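hey all, quick one before standup. I had two proteins in the batch that finished overnight and I want to keep them in one place so we stop losing track of which output belongs to which input. First protein below, input sequence then structure tokens straight from the run.
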Amino acid sequence: MGGSGVCDRALHHGHRPLASMVALWWGSAVLAVITSKVCLSRGMQPMHLSLIQFSVATALLWLVLRLRHNSQEIGAGSKLVRNVAATYAAAFMLTNLAFSLSSTPFVETIKAGEPVSTCLLAALWLREVDSLATYLTLLPIVAGVALASYSAHGAHSGHAFVATVASNIGFSARAVLAKRLKKEHPESPCAKSDIVLFYHVSRIGLCFIAPVVLTHDGYCWLMGAAISTSKLPTSSLVGLACLNGICFAIYNCTSFAVLSRVSANSHAVFNLLRRVVIISTSTIFFSLDVSLWNICGIAIALAGGLLYAKVKFATNSRGRNLGFYAGLRTSDVDKLRIV
């Protein structure tokens, strides 16, 4: 694959900072997923975890922008930024809900099917059509996800499947809206800087999540009663959730940093390998029993994702794809599929 060749050249031709960033990206992603699962398995509500994640990310990104003396203005396209934040916040809460209902490998495998929801959303919402080759590459993704889902065992796997698919749709909607922002308001600070965009998405997303949490728990949440049933002391659980929020912010930011240094195809390879690392690490960490059917389903889904990336970016580079993505840089397309 062309992308893997770029990866090899980037990593072996004296680009040690890139290798360090990839290691930080993958390491923080593994820690973010594992600490999320631990928090949720110890009784923390998905909404509470999302609230802490967005709060920590907002604070860290504000500090980074202050230290770099970057503008914190939204600029033009504020409505689109709010829509991006709303879909992103909803998708992230649904992801946390899915992690609370099923195993990490199961959820990560379903999340590998996000290209399917992206293509469907582009076709239904924007009336845009991709190449036949792109749609054909979705078949192994669907087959792998279906196989992994069918062979998955454990309580509430059906609910976890629905929550994860819904989160994929949310992330796909976020991708389309962010692309519109970059296309319609290129002069906006959020369109020019991914860190600025991520800061405002986290900040505005926090404004969406906080009322939901307060409405749901009200006085009990304010008094700390909502997490009093945890097997860990409240202070330890909140501290672990804050660590999770730090890892959540780091792995998103380092993913953007890696993307700025490699091609989109290479980044897609790195991103899928990251998912393999997360699935493997979480399986070992939580001592999960994985059947042969699970392994086959995960492998087929991830292989389909690699094939999709290769065909999609090759089509974009030749300028053959139609409609919404025509004329757009391939790096911008993959930049929207970080989580």
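OK second protein, same deal, sequence then tokens:
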Amino acid sequence: MTRRGIDLTALDSAGLFYGRQTLCLLATAQGIPCVEIIDNPCFGYRGIHLDVSRHFFPVETIFRLLDEMARYKLNKFHFHLADNGGWRIRIDAYPLLTRLGAFRTESDWLEWWSYGDRHYVPEDTPGAYGGYYTKEEIRRIVAYAAERFIEVIPEIEFPGHSDEVFAAYPELCCSGRAYTSGEFCVGNPLSLKFMDEVLTEVLELFPSKYIHIGGDEAPKTRWKECPKCQARMREKGLKNEEELQGWFVLQAIDFLKKHGKTAIVWNESLNSGMMPKDIIVQRWMDKKDRSVEFANNGGKMIVSEFYYYYCDYPYGMTSLKKTYSLDPYIKGLTEEGKKNVFGVECPIWTEYIRDFDRLSYMCFPRFWAVAEAGWTKRENMDCESFEERFEALRPMLENIGIKPAPRSDWNPNPLRCLSELRKFFKGTANLPDIKNMIHNNHA
């Protein structure tokens, strides 16, 4: 950029697009400064994750979020479409998924989830809470994202977190009755048929190279009592239920591979010891560091570290400085393992986030902090500089209806941290299984 004009060059259209985003961020009332910028991203995968199951967000809200992703050069939108809160995508082969599994009795997650009397209701029930995306709406979202060089990666959860499926098709769980099991009956051939047919329709809607299939947190208790699941274990020579889950996840992985797609799974899928190296593992909480071992041995890993990157927890638990401080080359990675860090992703789970204003408060500026970690080399990052730059852009965001957290909330002092944590955990204390509170919040 000189007084004579702006010269913007890049290797491809995406690079030109990101260059224009940089120009927009540099613009002030006095114009654009005369500078030379030579820039390229640190990681190819720079994502955010949005859970639309616990609370549903309409298409227009998704568009607004994609606009903000593009502004700070985030390029992967992980779209969490199916979970216990409701099924959010139309599947023609299984119309009851949205007819009976996309709406529930209440909007308030805590009230609905806590007291053991949670139920889904038919779509046309007066006062029901929920929603889903039609196929045309999904196509609009995918196209809108593509115009901004954002890849939409859908997640359909297997084999756990599937109560909403069994409300519509109870024959797919071990008991054959809704509200009695959290995971598919792996011994039932209908479960495999369901998985293949759902993924077939998902592939028709999402051109992404990557499909997320979950693969985490199936309780597996029912499998121990289920004759079909036990028969499947004997048939396949599996030692335990952990391997049974691994076998089921492998069926989805192989299906996607046959269709030219790469599966992404949460790090719990590594517990079976059966995962191939040509998948991608998303690390969120991995106390045994199996994901690090996976990367060190040649597998690709997305870093979504819970204690740093999860935006649904209060700033008193995950301050902006804490989010900004995480080096994606996490502890334990060898030089070879560092080469296999595929990128970073910042998740937001929506148990307690019902609207865009609350989403904005929780995610901004933390989304942008993770975006900077995905783009900028660690030695060039500075949290104080980032905070100043974000504040300078706050008026622009507020003018378009984005309401970030005020700067006074980003890095609370110890007393305020304690107060925020007390309020947060008091709000979750009535969950039916408090020791798994974090897990229920995860996926």
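Flagging for whoever picks this up: Confidence is low (pLDDT under 50) at residues 430-443. The radius of gyration is 22 Å.
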